[in-house]
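Meet my pick.
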Amino acid sequence: MAHRDELGMELSEHEINSEWLGNPPAGEGELAAAEARLGRRLPASLREFYSITNGWPLTSFDFGVIVPVAELALFRDAAPDMFEIWADDEDDDEDEDDGYPAVLGRSFLVSDGPDHMLLDPGRVGPDGEWGTFGLTSWYPGMGDEQPSFRAGLSSHYATFVRYEVPESPTHDAVRDEVEDIYVRLLNGRLDGVEALRTATKHGNERASVLLVQYEALLLPRRAGLHLLGHLSALEADPAAEQDLLPLFVSSALDPHDAMGWALDRALDSPDLAQSTRTTLLRLVDEHRRDGGLRARYPGEFGEQLSYVRTLVESDWMFEAWQAFNLALPSWRPASTLHLAPLALVWDVDLRRLFTPEHGRELLRAPRSL
């Protein structure tokens, strides 16, 4: 109801008064009849959807309606002309089970618009859910597969409010959720990471920057490059100077990986703030002059990290890791974009301490607010 203007919907008096756009639910008999006709049991999230509303009158973009369960059919049968068009776009090198003809031939069409939402019973998760993907005129290929019908609808809605409804109250709810997740992450609780990924689909820049840091501490190679699309969010942010821009520059100038193009693209962007550009250029000069970057954290943590560096330079790695953990309680985030001290990933000396297990230990360790 909140987005009826953006969707161009004309509502009946009943829909306005009831604040409900859906249809009556499908009964168990209707669900069983559809499953008998299709020769398989529907996945749980699709069954649950139909048990609440037997179809939905309109989705965003050009996906049209979600069809009633009685109209659920194979894509090749429901839209044979479109099936032929998409199936002819096959890459000959693709595996037979994952090529367009195979996937599209077994997938079910759940929407009736010019663009198509499909469920693939050939990609079944451990929970029994089917992979969901879209075919659109504005995105090549089968798009980003989601693990279930429910996840597909959630992703679809997130894309809609991100690009079509910048003032949606959903954005406020997402901001509040990201703040809650941030506090939990600083306390070493990782149960909110999937919700953080969902927040990035809504276009929440803070979630994107936090997620880059989380992933950098698990698999650092190229991790900093994912900041490329979010540098505008780092303007004048203390965490950018302290950790985030050094992470980006170190990833881009990794001598074992030709990723300098990312730095060129960042510096050529007309949207890059002058202060960020100045910092990037200074870090590039320092990296090229000294063969890498060295962290400069303020206060007690910075002082203790100098001792850690001395131990690393002496190849006392066990003692250095112990000293790093003893120093960690004195670390303070430079801003609400700051998840952890990332020198373990990008500092030319301290990154010798990094292992995936050490990264996980750091993420699980409570860190001061």
Notes: The beta strands are 73-74, 108-109, 116-124, 130-135. Residues 104 and 312 are 55 Å apart (CA to CA).
